[in-house]
Amino acid sequence: MGVNLDAQAGQNSEYATAIHELADAFLHRVLQPWLYPDFFFKWTSYGRKFNANIRLVKELTKKILKEKKLDMLMRSKNGVNELFPNEGLGERKKRKAFLELLLEHHLKDPSFTEEDVRQEVDMFMFAGHDTTAMSLSWTLYCLGQNPEIQQRVQEELDDIFGDEIDRNIVREDLTRLKYLECVIKETLRLYPSAPFIARECEDSFTVLDHVVPAGSLCMILISELHQDPESFPEPEKFVPERFLPENSVGRHPYAYVPFSAGPRNCIGQKFAMIEEKIVLANILKKFRVTSLDPKDKVITKPNLTTKNAQPLRLRFEQRIL
């Protein structure tokens, strides 16, 4: 978004805490139908905390939007930069943060209001940070459980970076990290960031001689779909090679949907893959990871994302190159 919250340094950490508590309150409500009416939910401890967190998230987003918008207008007024530069003319323009693009559209077209911008930002922040964080954690855990696969990933990294382990990762590097991409995809098969999605049926349809009427809310359990042995033989095994191009031929396009599918699929899936490749590559270039707990001791808990009930215990050892 182009804004530094310094959350890892302890600044604005209440935002991240609020997001986690909102997810917990949502699941608490989903599992107790008598709390569906707002009248009942708002009087519970979860409901009061939920509404307080909603206010906190909205207020922080509004504050950032106001400051960013004022900064853009002042820079334009002082001639530091054009508010709406002509793309493609002269020197290549610096790529803008997503928030700046949204605010530019708002300033060009006031019908796209600040509230519209806030909703877009909240959606990206809510859907984009915890999902990626959990995927990174599970990928490191899986690699720590499978040292031979981790070795192959590090050989790929060594081929690309050689002795330049401290240099920045560029676009060309990302396209060459093919086996690491397979590892990330296999992790998302076993531990999808979003374990379920929901769709409301506009038309009735029939499944196994059972008619699902229009208006029904259908829950698609991605975590179960990815365990189908017809699409993924020995589904409990961690086998990144499943996602090599030659091994993906003939697989049903909806057999693997970690980012959902269709017109409502995840808008940030390409960005998420780039983000994960960069973080994992920078870690695995320098460190070897070992998982300290076997798979049967690592329990996931129901939530909006696939979370571990207890901390994932990992050991990092510096690689000797």
Question: Your description of this structure?
Answer:
Keywords: Endoplasmic reticulum, Heme, Iron, Membrane, Metal-binding, Monooxygenase, Oxidoreductase. InterPro entries: Cyt_P450, Cyt_P450_CS, Cyt_P450_E_grp-I, Cyt_P450_sf, Cytochrome_P450_Monoox. One of its GO terms (cellular component) is endoplasmic reticulum membrane. With 321 residues, the protein is mainly alpha-helical. Helix content is 49%, strand content 9%. The chain is built from 11 helices and 8 strands. The chain has a two-stranded antiparallel sheet. A hairpin with a 2-residue loop joins strand 2 and strand 3. Helix 1 packs across helix 3 (45-77) and helix 3 crosses helix 5. The longest helix is centred in the N-terminal third of the chain and has 33 residues, at 45-77. It is globular and about 50 Å long. The mean pLDDT is 87.
Radius of gyration: 23 Å
- What string gives the helices and strands in order? HHHHHHHHEEEEHHHEEEE
Give the helix proportion (percent range): 40-55%
Distance between the termini: 36 Å
How many helix segments?
11
Approximate strand percentage: 5-15%
The main sheet comes to: 2 strands, antiparallel
Mean pLDDT across all residues, rounded?
87
Taking pLDDT < 50 over at least 5 consecutive residues as the criterion, the unreliable ranges are none
How many strand segments? 8
Query: Which structural class is indicated by helix and strand composition?
Result: mainly alpha
Shape: globular
> In what order do the strands lie side by side in the largest sheet?
1-4
GO molecular function, one term: oxidoreductase activity, acting on paired donors, with incorporation or reduction of molecular oxygen
Binding site for heme: 266
GO cellular component, one term: endoplasmic reticulum membrane
Protein name: Cytochrome P450 4C1
